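In the laboratory, one determines a bound structure by crystallizing the protein with its ligand and collecting diffraction data. In a computational setting the workflow is compressed into a single prediction: the sequence and the ligand go in, and a structural description comes out. We illustrate the idea with NDP.
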Amino acid sequence: MTATVIDGKAFAAKVRGQVADHVARLKEDHGITPGLAVVLVGEDPASQVYVRSKGKMTVEVGMKSVEHRLDAETSEEDLLAVVKSLNADPEIHGILVQLPLPGHLNEDLVINSIDPAKDVDGFHISNVGLLGTGQKSMVPCTPLGCLMMLRDHHESLSGLNAVVIGRSNIVGKPMAQLLLGDSCTVTIAHSRTKDIQDVVRGADVVVAAVGRPEMVTGDWIKPGATVIDVGINRINAPEKGEGKTRLVGDCDYESCAEVAGAITPVPGGVGPMTIACLLANTVTACCRANGLAEPEGLTA
Ligand SMILES: NC(=O)C1=CN([C@@H]2O[C@H](COP(=O)(O)OP(=O)(O)OC[C@H]3O[C@@H](n4cnc5c(N)ncnc54)[C@H](OP(=O)(O)O)[C@@H]3O)[C@@H](O)[C@H]2O)C=CC1
Ligand SMILES: Nc1nc(=O)c2c([nH]1)NC[C@@H]1CN(c3ccc(C(=O)N[C@@H](CCC(=O)O)C(=O)O)cc3)C=[N+]21
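The predicted complex, in structure-token form:
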């Protein structure tokens, strides 16, 4: 079998189009422009790239984009003051503090200082609790993007065996909650899981969020399964020339695509959907803040 390629880049463009339509209506009918603030601490080059492309796409859909770049030695007090001022700013509807933060800063403290209504990453403990109890919340962007692609590909997820590899707070755990919410039978695998290949072989849906280049190979995959590859790993690519690199996922694309029914590529899969969902969450937050109807199909 050769898997259907789930085109995250095209799907994300469609989602951004829906976001842009909603933004235009908010402006015309209500004179409101949704605003997204991104806070970046330090000079991590990979983070800089994400921040730049987020900023560009935010402006493209017609929203206001604000960036706060703080140097790596910024004190916790100063960072908390920036978040506080964004919480109080009526023109800002979404706040994202880029992770990871430099080691001297307490991530939990900083994330939980964001107004939960503006927490477009869905990392605040209030949003985590709301999601876990099936209540309306801000849903983390990467798992939301994965869920949208899965719902688009499957008529129903109900009763499917889903295995999520990885148990981080930003991807693995919220992904498992969303799949459970759609009535999958969910298993979370991690670094201590015994016989992980056998666990994954039982899955109709595999979501890999590990951070290990090409760890999952085709012989782990049940024939016909759907494979969502969250991993973003930069590896050396001497075949492209000296010192060159390329991006690969946590799944070995070639061998998995031979067995799977459908698979997301890296790049062009989950990554673009993450950014599209961030914009969608910002519009959702803006609508909720103003007591207006939310865009349909852009939340979990
Ligand atoms: N496309 C996108 O938009 C995004 C992509 N990413 C990418 O997704 C990947 C995961 O990110 P994140 O969740 O933040 O990573 P973390 O490092 O926070 O978590 C990795 C998880 O993988 C598990 N793990 C590590 N090694 C193994 C192994 N050998 N076998 C099984 N499980 C293992 C860990 O288990 P344990 O808990 O036991 O240590 C942990 O739960 C990364 O490549 C990251 O770059 C992340 C966010 C967004
Ligand atoms: N508070 C916070 N929220 C996040 O959502 C968050 C974060 N911190 N820290 C870093 C990770 C990583 N992340 C990505 C988003 C998009 C792509 C993406 O668009 N990738 C492109 C390729 C980009 C390239 O070529 O480098 C793709 O996969 O096609 C990748 C990774 C969000 N993260």
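The pocket of 5,10-Methenyltetrahydrofolate (ligand 2) is lined by residues 49-50, 96-99, 121, 141-142, 232, 247, 266-268, 271-272, 274-275 (CB under 6 Å). Keep in mind that any predicted model is a hypothesis to be tested, not a measurement.
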